Structures are given as structure tokens and as C-alpha cells.
Amino acid sequence: MKQESHLEATPGTVRPGGRTAKVRAAVLEATREALATEGFHALNMDRIAAAAEVGRTTVYRRWASPTGLIADLLRDMADRSVPASDTGTLEGDLRENATLVVTTLTDPRMGPVFRAVIAAAACDDECADALRGFYGTRLRTWATAVDRAAARGEAPPGTDPVEVVRAVSAPLYYRFAVSHEPLTTADAERAVAAALAATRAGVFAPGSD
Amino acid sequence: MKQESHLEATPGTVRPGGRTAKVRAAVLEATREALATEGFHALNMDRIAAAAEVGRTTVYRRWASPTGLIADLLRDMADRSVPASDTGTLEGDLRENATLVVTTLTDPRMGPVFRAVIAAAACDDECADALRGFYGTRLRTWATAVDRAAARGEAPPGTDPVEVVRAVSAPLYYRFAVSHEPLTTADAERAVAAALAATRAGVFAPGSD
């Protein structure tokens, strides 16, 4: 019984399809919807419980706070991370990644969710840890494309694959979350070209020069 | 008289050293201090007025809201932007810029202020506009170093100087504000090397290839 209650208190560790998983799915979907439409500041546990049709005490007991909801949403998003593209070339794979970032951040529904989780992470340590975990998963997932490219000789030996992927994402997120400049497919192309040039010059292969 | 009241309502347009300027300086310093120690969420107009030793009605009348205070702080920071370095080489100037970014973001006092303004910009349009203005000023200021380098032949003709400076800042801000990863001088060096490689490859000179 102790084990059971431990599992209940740790969302994501129970079997999919069970009641706990259904409650979590409904609450996280309501959280995502609230972040998309109202932003981080308006996030309210009672309204999330009502929208998810879950008891308030369950929501408070399991997630404790609005930032607890956001942190768990980020853990769920990390778990659902899709595999990296495999187009056959490094440039093709990096372009798919950059396009995915731009498409997501400019999506009328997902853009506000990312804005909200970035704001939450700036205000709350649990959210910052969860966001670090989300991007860690995402960077490692796409790093496999760079590893494949290095094996084909498209990147210098010793290239740090995560640095290559981070170099693609960084200028796009800088516009989105820091300088609040428009984000277009031209920015995606430029990010890919810059990351490729730096990769080929050995910038991400420490000690290669 | 209409003109006078317009000037009073637009901080920064009055002569330095006047009473309006002194009130603004005290209120913005109290705002910066509150953001450094308590973050964006705890920002409270009454406490700012008390800390600045300025009447509450003055603070409410001039800045209207906590986000109004942050937006005006950002306009003030943009106005105080210091000139770019001039070391004689593009690499030297970009390194000075990257070091300044890392030093600022990892500073125990300024780091939390930047975290707070980035969070505020994610939640509030006026803050987003002000943050865009701040980084616009900062990027244009450092772009002069790239223009000088291009005139010396250190960058291909037609290089967009703002893109070069943005390429240096982006991976540093990505770690700070998005992925919440540690930020070190090694990251500054890598950002400079990557921006230089992309510049030399003509990535930031559209139509040059």
C-alpha cells in the first residue's frame, strides 16, 4: 500500500490508461489550454480542477501549486518528445529541426504555452528544473542526427552533437523569448547555415584545431 | 501647460537633475533592487514607493502598474547603453561583447534583474516592447564594431552587422533564459568562435554566395 501511494504521488510512474493516468492527462490538458489562452499569471488551481472535471482536493494534493502543474506539464512534454528526423544529410535534419522550432513557437496555440513555461521557469526553481529537463531531452533527441552525420563524415571527428543542435535553436529562441523580434522561416534558414558553418569549421569539436 | 504635463507623463523627456528626473531615478533604482532580491512576482507599487521615498499617488499616476515600472526601467537601461568596445579586431570586439553578456547574466545582482524582465516580457506586451527596444539598442550599439571590421576587410561585403552580434548573444541567452543551463566563459568563447565562422562563411551576408 505504501508503494501504491508513492506511485500515486509521482505522476507519470503509473501504468498508462489507469485512473491516475487519466486524471493526470485531463489536468495537464486543462493546464495547457489555460496557458495557451490566459498565460502563466492567470493559472488557477480551482479553474484547472473544474475544467479537467477532477476534484479540487485531488489537484491540490498532487500538484500543490500552479508552478507544480507547469513543471509536470513540462515533464509530460519531455516524455512525448518525438524522434529526430532522418533525411540523410546533416543540413536536411537541422533544417527539419529549425522548421519545427519556428512552427511550434509561432503556432497560435503552442507559442503562448512556450511563452508561459519560459516565464514560469524565470520565476520558479521547480519549473526551471523541468524546463532544463525538457530541453535536455529535446537536445539529446536531435543530437542523434548529428551523430549519424559525423559517422557519414559530415562533421569533424569529436563534434559535440548537442552544441550543434543548441546552435540551431538558440537564435530562434533568442528572438522569441529575449528580444521579442519576429520569427520567420528565413531565421530558421540562417540558424541552420550558421550552425553548419561553425560545425564544419570545427567550433563544436573541442581540441580539433 | 499641456506640453508640461505631457512631459511629466513621459519619463525620460525632462531635463536630467530636475525633480521629475530625481523621482524617476529613485523609483527605477527601487524597482531594480526589488527585481534583484524578490523577482518579478513580488513587485509591489506601494513597497516601491516606500523604498524610493516617493508618494504612492505619484508612483501610481506615472507608472500605473508593476509592468509599467519594468518597462520604464528597460527604457532607462537602453538609454544608458555603453558604447561597444574597439579592440582593433572583430574577434576581440565580439569576445568583449560575449564576456559582458556572461558577466552580466551571472552577476548575483544583475542576473535576477534580467531573469525578471524576461519573465515580465513573456507576460506583458508593454514589457515585451520595452525589452525589444532594449535589445534593439544593444544590438545596434555593438553592430558598429562589425561595421568597423567589415571596413577593415574582416567580414564579407554586405554582412548584416546586427546578425553577427545576435549570433554571439543568442547561445548565451538560450542557456540563461530557455534551457536554464550553466553559463561560463567557455560558452562565451564558443559563441564568438561560432559567430566568426558563420560570418567568414558569408552566412550573414545575404546574396553573397
From TrEMBL, chains A, B:
The keyword Transcription applies. Keywords: DNA-binding, Transcription, Transcription regulation. The keyword Cytoplasm does not apply. GO terms for molecular function: DNA-binding transcription factor activity; transcription cis-regulatory region binding. PROSITE patterns: HTH_TETR_2 (PS50977). Residues 44-63 bind DNA. InterPro entries: Homeodomain-like_sf, HTH-type_TetR-like_transc_reg, HTH_TetR, Tet_transcr_reg_TetR-rel_C_sf, TetR_C. It comes from Streptomyces ficellus. Pfam families: TetR_C_11, TetR_N. Residues 1-20 are annotated as: Disordered. This is TetR/AcrR family transcriptional regulator. Residues 21-81 form the HTH tetR-type domain. Signal peptide: none annotated. It comes from the Bacteria.
